[in-house]
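Hey,

Quick one before I head out. I ran the complex with flavin-adenine dinucleotide overnight. Inputs first:
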Amino acid sequence: MRWNETEYAGWGRVQTAHGEIARPERVSSLEAILSEGSVPAMGKRRSYNDACLNSGGRAIDMTRLDRIISFDADKGVLEAEAGITIGSLARIFAPLGWLPKIMPGTGFATLGGAIAQDVHGKNHQVSGSFGQHVLSVTLLTSGKRVIATPSRNKALFKATMGGVGQTGVILSAKIQMKPCPGEMVMVTERRAEGWDEFLSMLDTSTATYSVGWIDTTARGDALGRGTLEEGELAAGNVLKHKGTLSVPINAPGFALSAPVVRAFNSAYYHKVPVKGRTSVKPLDEFFFPLDKIRNWNRLYGKRGFYQFQTVVPTAQAPALREMLKQIAGSSLFSPLAVLKRMGPGRAGHLSFPMEGYSLAVDIPNRRGAQALVSELERATVAAGGRIYLAKDALASGDAVKAMYPEQGEWAEIVNKADPEHALETDMTRRLNLRSTT
Ligand SMILES: Cc1cc2nc3c(=O)[nH]c(=O)nc-3n(C[C@H](O)[C@H](O)[C@H](O)COP(=O)(O)OP(=O)(O)OC[C@H]3O[C@@H](n4cnc5c(N)ncnc54)[C@H](O)[C@@H]3O)c2cc1C
């Protein structure tokens, strides 16, 4: 197998790594590599941080291992190799009447990456997290194939869901899909004029899918204003998928300067009429709106950006409001900010979700960004919430352990599966995530 020495990065482009990467196309090639010792795997590197980086070491790019192994069209049970993307599954199976139960905000996440971060979608409050719909997973761990299910190798299965790739390379998985009437979504958009109204709209929404865009530049009475999108799967086919745009080069610093973001956000907010509006959109436009613009992460320029995603318990909503105030006051805002209601569903020890509200914001990597993220992280701990391991680039190990009380139990299972610590990544080392003390 050829190893290519290369420089690579997480999606936020703040953290980079230099190392060797192999892209096996066949399971036999992957097995040959792993027979010489374990190597961490990565998918499409849509985690914003260092979760899939292995500086100075080797990593396996799983994206060519993307075959469908079997599909039971009566039960909607799919088995596929881990490198297939969630977007491909949606495109292939929606016309046949089936959809992955959970779809994150990018269709570029692979099946392996979706399991390893136990991702959530716009229906978390209704359907839980990705790992809750995994029926079995085949791992290559310490040179052996191991099948884990919710009832067989139970502990290993739980540690794999949201286990950031530390139990072994996920070779393939079997998932339960959900029936869907077509390739369209009926979308209703409504404005929320401020924070309290936004929360009450999220709380009373009965939609299957719901997601809020929040204007992080708004202050005073308008603090927390935004728009809520609610969606239901609908019949109809997409005759021709729209092409994608691309950001060809790193944007200059002023592209997302504070005045530009303020103007953009105001226009975006007012685009939704006061009385709201309803439209029918293709699935990918609703579920993966940013995927239309290839390399949109270059809009933040060559210094990249941080994404901060937090979830706080329902009763701690005022803490989230304070965080929003801090962001609005910092001028380190961007147009990308998402407010979601989350349910309790989670599949693994390190899964992010908790019942409450989640806020995700992009923060350009400018002066003051690290201090702001650290303050938001402190506020999260104080509120009894947690930050997301697919996004965080700056937290300390102690803070993360405080947010994830099952981390010690997880580390014990993982350390048995990978006693040489060969699967560690830059993130697990930064957070000392595998320590049992
Ligand atoms: C625009 C955008 C929107 C997003 N929206 C959401 C959202 O709504 N909800 C949400 O939960 N997340 C969201 N994310 C985050 C994204 O879904 C996760 O980071 C996901 O893990 C990315 O998948 P990937 O294949 O790129 O994995 P990578 O980022 O390459 O890797 C992620 C982790 O999985 C491990 N891994 C990957 N493949 C394997 C494998 N085969 N075997 C073992 N370990 C493996 C890696 O080691 C790493 O720890 C979003 C990201 C972007 C860029």
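Residues 258-271 form the longest helix (14 residues).

Talk tomorrow,
K.
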